[in-house]
Amino acid sequence: MHNRKTLANEFLGRVKWQDGEHTPLAGDASNRRYERIRKKNERAVFMDAPPPLENVGAFLTIANLLRDLGLSAPNIFEADIDAGFLLIEDFGDTTYTERLLAGVDEGELYKLATNVLIHLHRAYQDDGAMSAYDNDLLVRETQLCLDWYMPAVLGTDTPDLDKAAFDSAWRTALKTAREVPSSIVLRDFHADNLMLLNNRNGIAACGLLDFQDAVIGPVSYDLVSLLEDARRDVPAKISRQMLSQYLSAFPTLNPDKFASSYAILGAQRCTKILGIFTRLDRRDGKPQYLKHIARVWRWLETDLRHPALAPVKKWFDYYFPQKYRITPTPVTRE
Length: 334
Hints:
By secondary structure, the chain is of the alpha+beta class.
């Protein structure tokens, strides 16, 4: 049976990109692997996304959709969907994260990203083809916290009765989260997945990555993903400015309902990330994500102060008091 490397070489040979300089690119929290390929005056990025763990078909579909809406998703040069290989446009190395570390104007970068969401929510027309970010999926994601983070900290599995109370609390809160319009949700809209494209203007200057899991859900989700970034501290002043910028673009949107939805989905996202980052260490051998746990708790505790999250806050306060809200010890490996 062919291994992935052999299959990859065969794909690149078929599309005439096997030759040239191959440079590995930094991976992410997924099972995908990336290489930059340079040949003569051309360059591209090779994505190896092994099925069934990853779905390059969804990446291709959403990339085309976003470009049709005037946004900057990578062009797809070549694809083998069944094998999980793509050759895509190279957006370079200028991620938002790199620009922010270099000291560029933070406010301008976040203003651009917020304008992307405003444009997306104005332009996207739901044709019914995309999956819904329904409450079953949202609750299932929060359970990653019970399955991975809590056992890592408490040293024991979460009892079924506690899980049932957790489920009920979230379902109560999530009803309120849906009192805003729905649109396409990219799900991982944050600094690590945004690029600054210096050769493009307006919203096209923001390059988009990691959108293949897009679904239809509340418009508040991607904004809270951007501003409650699990990997970096976004200043409260910038968050307030971006919330104001977004609400100003949609004058018929009820600010109080949006604030409730924003807090609930922020808490939902933080809760699942506690589980995901712990799983990345325990299952996948990627302990580097644990350093963000303290920040995720800060975002979560801020969100839990919102009255719409009272049932969820009550659960956390009872079952998971302050002394257990810590970073798990990384797994020791040989």
